[in-house]
Amino acid sequence: MKLFTFILLFSTALQAQSPWQESQRETLEFAVPEGFRKLQLQLIVDEESDWAHVALLQKTLAKSSRILSRCRVGISQALVRKVRFSAEVIHALNNQDPYKGPSEVLLMGADLEATRPVGFLMDLKRPSTAAAFNRTSIRRLSTTLSQVHVLAESFHITSDYRTNQRFPGALAGYDTFTHELAHLLGDLGHIPVRGNLMTSLDGRGAKGPGLTPEQCAAILTSPHLN
User: Fold this and answer.
1) What's CA 215's distance to the chain center, in Å?
2) Which one of 11, 40, 150, 175 is most buried, counting C-beta atoms within 10 A?
3) DSSP string covering 145-197, please?
4) What are phi and psi of 182, to 5 degrees?
5) Which residues of 61-94 are buried (b: 16+ CB within 10 A; e: fewer)?
6) Is the residue at 207 inside a domain?
């Protein structure tokens, strides 16, 4: 009982602390073609990562819009918040306990603005990851873990996924950032289709920018589109 009480108090105290110190914020705006649905994002960016270079981030967002244009969707605005994550949060992310659930829960506090989806773009201070918490994954996790609902509509990507270096056989149009974003927008899973953005296949030419009409229809149901 004493051990349980200590763990509970420690967890509560950690959640009460701010998970980061914000050093800068700016809003990036992009033109979206007439007739397209518009998407706004909130991006929490590790100030020491490659993601923090605005020119590189703009290229990522422009590429994402090109892929989503297949569904007549474009990113119109991104609130970019450059931060330094606390040592406690980095420690938790590097020491995940499967019995307690994802440590990313610690990131989802009152410091966040209301805009969703929210992306956490981090350096390799934490283990390499590219993950999204959509409605389906939250329902699955909620059957065994509490508090995971706060992760809904968030995605988490380390800087080694900023380019396709992790997938040397991918087509040039493929993009991990958009892959994770599409998981959220359309509650999409993986499919065994070559050249598709959401493919479950690996190998040369397997991963690409394609989206099927059914995937686009699901994306267009997202409540985050204006």
Assistant:
1) 18
2) 175
3) -SSGGGGTTEEEEEGGGSSGGG-TTS-TT--HHHHHHHHHHS----B--TTBT
4) -65, -30
5) bebbbebbebbebbbbbbbbbbbebbeebbebbe
6) no
pLDDT in tens, the chain (226 residues): 333 333 333 344 444 578 999 999 999 999 999 999 999 999 999 999 999 999 999 999 999 999 999 999 999 999 999 999 999 999 999 999 888 889 999 999 878 999 999 999 999 999 999 999 999 999 988 877 767 899 999 999 999 999 999 999 999 999 999 999 999 999 999 999 999 999 999 999 999 999 999 999 999 999 999 9
Spatial contact of 114 and 120, defined as CB atoms under 8 Å apart: no
Rounded (5°) CA angle 33-38-42: 130
154 DSSP β-pair partners = 118, 133
Contact criterion met (CB below 8 Å) for 196 and 161: no
β-pair partners for 27: 79
Q: Which domain holds residue 154?
A: 20-169
Total tally of structural domains belonging to the chain: 1
The answer to whether position 115 is within a domain reads yes
Cβ distance 47 to 82 under 8 Å? yes
86, 22 Cβ separation under 8 angstroms: no
**In this structure, which amino acid lies at residue 84?**
R
Is residue 185 included in any domain, yes or no? no
pLDDT at 16: 53
Spatial distance between the Cα atoms of 101 and 96, rounded to a whole number of angstroms: 8
Q: Does residue 79 form part of some domain? A: yes
Q: What is the CATH number of the domain that holds 86?
A: 3.40.50
